[in-house]
Structure formats: structure tokens, C-alpha cells
Automatic annotation (TrEMBL):
Domain ABC transporter residue range list: 463-702
Purpose of the protein: ATP-dependent transporter located in the mitochondrial inner membrane that catalyzes the export of biliverdin from the mitochondrial matrix, and plays a crucial role in hemoglobin synthesis and antioxidative stress. Participates in the early step of the heme biosynthetic process during insertion of iron into protoporphyrin IX (PPIX). Involved in the stabilization of the iron transporter mitoferrin-1/SLC25A37. In addition may be involved in mitochondrial unfolded protein response (UPRmt) signaling pathway, although ABCB10 probably does not participate in peptide export from mitochondria.
Transmembrane regions: 140-161, 181-206, 288-306, 363-385, 405-426
Organism: Champsocephalus gunnari
Protein name from the UniProt record: ATP-binding cassette sub-family B member 10, mitochondrial
Keyword Transit peptide: yes
Keyword Transit peptide belongs to the record: yes
């Protein structure tokens, strides 16, 4: 995994990494392999093929590396830069192929953090970060100017303060001269300090505002990139992970370009200026003090490495705890219904205990380090005082110079500490950046708004599946359809029935082109849906699912969501759609009427109410094709009647594919298709199918009737 990630980080140019064990590599066809001539004989079996775990991926090269000849120093060159991601390269041990990262799965925080601790930052990442900052270049340049002024003032302060001390101590009995010199020196210094304060305030303001602007731009592009991805991408990636990219990683990147960079530059400038001033004030004392720095720096490097590995483990443990909390809180109703609050609290506590254990380890380490550095700092000051005192006694140094030197020592110490935290923050920024680039660069597998658009006259609504085979990209080994064919003439109602899990909803997903079939074609009025503009296609298809999802807006906004331009929808149109959906009366009964906010996913409404609002939303779209998933037992008799009536109104004059559960719907449909064994087992009129005693439909109906009787008996 780490090798895969490392590869992806180098995917924008020539990539190199070292293999330390015999491996079998699968390379995307865009990658080429190179190695020193004497190593070439170690590659065998180069051939173009698809990876076994990803039969649908573009073919690549399989390269076996002889198990008996460990290979080191292998280079992989990827000349076609931007499109290559780690999913195109898979590593497996020479004996057994391991499971590679599924195509399109984004790197997790833990992945990139692990990677960040052990590698240097590629130039390409630096360029991208700088490119992000480019629109804010003038503000940032001004901020850097102010930074120079404020740092200059800070670093001149010890020198000037030294002068003040010398003025006080060397004036002797001439108090008048001393007062005059002291007053003018203090007035001058007040002016300098005022300039420094103003420059610092301006720097902070400019850095903060440009940082926020960069984060805003990043978030907008990232959200747009996420929403463009195909549905299969969301099957592979956890929502929490994507939200984390959008909120936390963007902020980290923004901060590393602005605040961290400015703090880092300030630390470098101050450390350099401080050391120079130390040598200026007293070269012999400076050489003596700086002898202590190298061992301290070595300690800091060792400590930094160890601390990073512990913080990574802490972060991993924390991520697990957060993941658990996120899932349980968002499914609180299920937790409550099963009475699992206490056991969930215990599970969460166990996870947080793990975090605590690691955090304690980290605390011990930090305590040791800060103890040692604090001690070294004090020893350094003591040495300056000791050696400085001796120099003063031999008239080689004044009291003001010694005071100034002490202050510079202090500043250099602070700046070096600032530099170490700057480095770790910068690394965090690059880690977050590489996760963001991956998402930002990802091209969706099919376009959102490209392709053929039919005119209103051309669109009749004839749907046809011809020998369609399909497996979900996340489960390629389990095909849902094989050579499935089905024709739905324009303006007719096709009821689809079949056992649970037979693929009824999948049929709807394929029509909406949420996924592409692996072979065969799906056509609308003779046009392959892959040639049609997906955005146009979906704007002419209405859907009402069994559990419709509403957004946490008002009822009015939820209904208007169905229209192409929700802003342009009039109140009359919304009322009309609500009336046709049998929703008007219950909405008006709410104290806030159409302005009632429905809560997250419509949680504040009943199942039947949600269904009717979803029907109103679909009505407002006025689609030519309707895909319905009929609500089942969730509704009571009255609601069922109201929803049914609304659905019938919605279906008039359109081509409808309905996943039917009720006998009445099946009876009213023009034809019934029975899904069985990954294809349409039977298709025909309801009475015709019932007439076939050995037929699938008849058996399915008999089974359903039997189950209903059993259920009624159990209820009695
Ligand atoms: N996003 C997905 N990724 C992988 N497999 C999926 C996905 N969605 C559904 N499946 C699988 O595809 C098969 C068909 O599911 P589908 O929801 O189409 O069945 P269904 O006939 O509508 O079932 P039900 O009547 O229970 O709603 C099931 O085995 C299901 O586990």
C-alpha cells in the first residue's frame, strides 16, 4: 500500500522507487519499465493483459520479477503524467497476488501520513501548492514585505536595548547627557516598535484573508470534482473520508501556504539574523554557544522521527474511533431500536482507550524532549552568562553587549523551535495536498454533460435492453445480469417483479446511467444511452424510490428541486404539483405550511408524506420516462390509497418502469417482466402469465399470496 501511494505521489513526472523484494508488478499501459541494463534480464513474462482483480480496467503489462533474484533500484517511468494514479499499478508478492487498491479509491489520511513521514516532497507537489497561491500573489507578496519589516524590527530590538543599557551604565556622573541620549534613543525605538507592530498586524491580516480565499477556491473546486464522479466512485469511498478531504484537508493546505509559510520564513530569517548578530556582537562568545547546537539538532531529528511514527498510530486509532462514532450517530434510530446504547458506548470507549494509551506514550516522549530542550536552553543561557561574565571582566564586552547577546540567543532558540514545527506542519500540508490532488484530478468514468440531446419531438420514450450484462464495479465477480433483453414500448407501463436481490433496482440504475453495462446496449428511442448527454437524459427521467430522500430544506424547496431551474418555479406550480400528489392538505395543516423544514433526509415526515412530496417533485419535472419503486408495507391503508392515486396521476401519458409489489399495480400495467437467473425469465400481460401454471410469475404470485396469509395469521 505504501509503495502504491508513493507511486501515485510521483505520478506527475518521472517516478522512481526502490523494490527490496522479488515482486510481480502490474503496470498500466501508460507506464513503462526501465532498469539498469544488467538488471533487465531479471524481468520475465512481460505481456499486455488486464489485472485479474480488475478485469474492467484498461489492459496493462504484467511483469514478473524472478523470485530468486531480488531486485533493487527498479525505476518506473510514467511519461503521461496527470492521468496516472496508483490504481494503475499493482504489486503482488511473487508467490501470491495480493489485492490491490480498488480502482478509484481515494487515499486515506493514514495512507498519506505514513507516506509523508518517509519520503521527501516531490517538486510537482510544490508547484501545485504554489499554483494555488498564485491568484493571491499580490496580497502574499505584500504580506512577505510586512513580514520582512516586522522581523527586522524584532531582530533589531536586542541590539537597540543593548544600546539603552550601555547608555545607562556608561554615562557615569553626567546625568544630563545620559537623560538626553536615553530620551532620544527611547523615542527612536518607540517609533521603530510602532512600525514593527503595524507591519505585523498588516502581515497577519493579509495572510489570513488570502488563506481563507485559497481555502474557499479549493473547497469549491473539490466539491465540484466530487459531485462529478460516477456513482461507483461513491460505492468505493466512504462519505466521512470525502467530507474530511473537503473540510479538514483544504484547511490544512490553505494554512500551510499562508500561515505556516510565513511563520517558517520568519523563523528562518530570525534564526539567520540572530546568529549573524551574535557573531557581530561577540564572535568568540557566538562560536562557544553554537557548539551546543549540533547535538541538540541531532536530538531533535531523532525525536521528530519517533514522534511522527507515534502520532501516526494515534491518528489511526483516532480515525477508527471517529468512524465508529460517525456511523452510530448517523444511525441513532437503529442503535436505539436495538437498545445498543451502552454496548456502543463501551465499544467507543475501548477505541478511545487505545487512543489514550498511544497519547500517553506520546506525552512521555514530549515530556522528555521538552525537559531536555528546556534544560539545554537554560544551560546555554548559563554558559553565555559565565563566558560573557569572563569577557566583561577582561574588558572585552560591555554589559549592553552581553544583554543583547543573551536576547539574540533567546530568539535563535525560539526560531529553531519554530522551524521544527514549521517542517512538520509543511509535511502535513503536502500530505493533505496529495490527497486533494488525487480527488481534484480524478476524471469521472463517464461525462456529466456531454453527448447527444434529442429534441422534445424526437423523444418518445421507447426503452430497450439488448443482451445486457452487468456486474457492480465493486463486485465484478458477481454478475447481476447476463444477456438480459427487455422492450418497453413508448407510453406504456412495464411492471418489473422478481425475488429480492434479483436486480430490480439495478435495472432502474442502469436506465438512469448511474452505472454502465459491461456488454450489450440500452437504448432510448433507438439511441444508445452511452451516446446521450447524461444530464439531458436524467432531466427527462423522473424517479420515485421506495424510500425517497428529501433534503433538509423547506417542503417548498424540496418540491422545486425537481425542476431544471428551481428558482424559476412559481408558487402556483408548487401548489399544483402538491395537489396532484395528494400532498396539499397535509402540508397546509403544518403550522408553517410549505415553509416547514423536513429535517435531515426528511426525518420529520412520515413515510407516506415523504412519498407524496417525492411524487410532487417528480411531477414538477414533467418527465417523459418514469422509474418508480413502489412503496410496500410501510404505508397504512389511507396513505397507500393516497400515494397510489397520486402515482396513477403521475404515470398518465408517460413510459413507466415500475418495480411492482402490489397486485393492483401489476394488473394495471401493460406488461409484466419477471426477473430470474440474471435475465428476464418471462414477459407478457398479467393474465397471460398467470395462465401458465408452471410459469415463474404464477409461482411468484402463489408464494407471495402464501406469505401474506401466513403474515395475517401471525398478526392475529
Ligand atoms: N452499489 C452496489 N454495489 C454492489 N452490489 C450491489 C449494489 N447495489 C446492489 N447490489 C447487489 O446487487 C444485487 C441486486 O440488487 P437490487 O437492489 O437491484 O435488487 P432488488 O431486486 O431491487 O432487491 P429488493 O427487492 O430487495 O429491493 C444484490 O445482490 C445486491 O446486493
Amino acid at each position: 500500500m505504501r509503495l502504491l501511494n508513493r507511486m501515485s505521489r510521483y505520478s506527475h513526472g518521472v517516478s522512481k522507487f526502490k523494490l527490496t523484494q522479488p515482486r510481480m508488478l502490474w503496470l498500466d499501459h501508460r507506464l513503462t519499465l526501465s532498469a539498469a541494463p544488467r538488471r533487465k534480464r531479471q524481468f520475465t513474462g512481460v505481456k499486455s493483459s488486464a489485472h485479474p482483480a480488475f478485469p474492467l480496467c484498461s489492459p496493462g503489462l504484467f511483469v514478473s520479477v524472478l523470485p530468486c533474484s531480488p531486485l533493487r533500484g527498479l525505476s518506473i517511468l510514467c511519461p503521461h503524467t496527470r492521468t496516472v494514479t496508483h490504481t494503475h499499478v499493482a504489486f503482488a508478492s511473487s508467490s501470491a497476488a495480493s489485492t490491490p487498491t480498488p480502482a478509484g479509491q481515494v487515499k486515506t489520511q493514514a495512507d498519506t501520513e505514513g507516506e509523508q513521514t518517509s519520503t521527501t516532497v516531490p517538486l510537482e507537489d510544490v508547484k501545485r501548492i504554489l499554483k494555488l497561491a498564485y491568484p493571491e500573489r499580490w496580497k502574499l507578496a505584500a504580506a512577505l514585505g510586512f513580514l520582512t519589516v516586522s522581523s527586522g524590527v524584532t531582530m533589531s530590538a536586542p541590539f537597540l536595548l543593548g544600546k539603552v543599557i550601555d547608555t545607562i551604565y556608561t554615562a557615569g556622573a553626567d546625568t544630563e547627557t545620559m537623560t538626553a541620549s536615553l530620551t532620544s534613543l527611547c523615542i527612536m525605538m518607540t517609533g521603530v516598535f510602532l512600525c514593527g507592530g503595524a507591519a505585523n498586524a498588516a502581515r497577519v491580516y493579509l495572510m489570513q484573508t488570502s488563506g481563507q480565499q485559497i481555502v474557499r477556491n479549493l473547497r469549491a473546486s473539490l466539491f465540484s470534482s466530487i459531485l462529478r464522479q460516477e456513482v461507483a466512485f461513491f460505492d468505493r469511498n466512504r462519505t466521512g473520508e470525502l467530507i474530511n478531504r473537503l473540510s479538514a484537508d483544504t484547511a490544512v493546505v490553505g494554512r500551510s501556504i499562508t500561515d505556516n509559510l510565513s511563520d517558517g520564513l520568519r523563523a528562518v530569517a530570525q534564526a539567520a539574523a540572530g546568529v549573524s548578530m551574535m557573531f557581530y556582537v561577540s564572535p568568540s562568545l557566538a562560536s562557544f554557544v553554537l557548539l551546543i547546537v549540533p547535538p541538540l539538532a541531532a536530538l531533535a531529528v531523532v525525536y521528530g522521527r519517533y514522534l511522527r511514527s507515534i502520532s501516526k498510530s494515534t491518528q489511526d486509532a483516532l480515525a477508527q474511533a471517529t468512524e465508529l462514532a460517525e456511523e452510530r450517530i448517523s444511525n441513532m434510530r437503529t442503535v436505539r431500536a436495538f437498545g445498543k446504547e451502552l454496548s456502543e458506548v463501551n465499544t467507543y470507549t475501548e477505541k478511545t482507550d487505545q487512543v489514550l494509551k498511544l497519547a500517553r506514550k506520546e506525552a512521555v516522549l514530549r515530556a522528555g524532549f521538552f525537559g531536555v530542550t528546556g534544560l539545554s536552553g537554560n544551560i546555554m543561557i548559563l554558559s553565555v552568562l559565565y563566558k560573557g561574565g569572563l569577557l566583561m571582566a577582561s574588558q572585552h564586552m560591555t554589559v549592553g553587549e552581553l544583554s543583547a547577546f543573551l536576547m539574540y540567543t533567546f530568539w535563535v532558540g525560539i526560531s529553531i523551535a519554530g522551524l521544527s514545527s514549521f517542517y512538520s506542519e509543511l509535511m502535513k500540508g503536502f500530505g493533505a495536498g496529495s490527497r486533494l490532488w488525487e480527488l481534484l484530478d480524478r476524471k469521472p468514468e463517464f461525462p456529466l454533460n456531454e453527448g447527444l440531446m434529442l429534441s422534445a419531438d424526437q423523444l418518445k420514450g421507447r426503452l430497450e435492453f439488448s443482451e445486457v450484462s452487468f456486474a457492480y464495479p465493486t463486485r465484478t465477480e458477481a454478475p447481476i445480469f447476463q444477456d438480459l433483453s427487455l422492450l418497453v414500448p413508448a407510453g406504456t407501463v412495464m411492471a418489473v417483479v422478481g425475488p429480492s436481490g434479483s436486480g430490480k433496482s439495478t435495472l432502474v440504475s442502469l436506465l438512469l446511467r448511474l452505472y454502465d453495462c459491461n456488454s450489450g446496449t440500452i437504448t432510448i428511442d433507438g439511441h444508445d444511452i452511452r451516446d446521450l448527454n447524461p444530464y439531458w437524459l436524467r432531466s427527462h427521467i423522473g424517479t420515485v424510490s421506495q424510500e425517497p430522500v428529501l433534503f433538509s430544506y423547506s417542503i417548498r424547496d424540496n418540491i422545486a428541486y425537481g425542476a431544471v431551474d428551481p428558482e424559476a418555479v412559481t408558487t402556483e406550480e408548487i401548489y399544483g404539483a402538491a395537489r396532484a400528489a395528494n400532498a396539499f392538505n397535509f402540508i397546509q395543516d403544518f403550522p408553517n405550511g410549505f415553509n416547514t423544514v423536513v429535517g435531515e433526509k426528511g426525518v420529520l415526515l412520515s413515510g407516506g408524506q415523504k412519498q407524496r412530496i417525492a411524487i410532487a417533485r417528480a411531477l414538477l419535472k414533467n418527465p417523459k420516462i418514469l422509474l418508480l419503486d413502489e412503496a410496500t408495507s410501510a404505508l397504512d391503508a389511507e396513505n397507500e390509497f393516497l400515494v397510489q392515486e397520486a402515482l396513477e396521476r403521475l404515470m398518465t401519458g408517460r413510459t413507466v418502469v415500475i418495480i411492482a409489489h402490489r397486485l393492483s399495480t401489476i394488473q394495471n400495467a401493460n406488461a409484466v417482466a419477471v426477473l430470474d437467473q440474471r435475465r428476464i425469465g418471462e414477459c407478457g400481460q398479467h393474465t397471460e402469465l398467470l395462465g401458465n401454471r408452471q410459469g415463474l410469475f404464477r409461482k411468484l404470485m402463489e408464494k407471495q399470496a402464501f406469505l401474506q396469509v401466513k403474515q395475517k395469521r401471525a398478526l392475529r
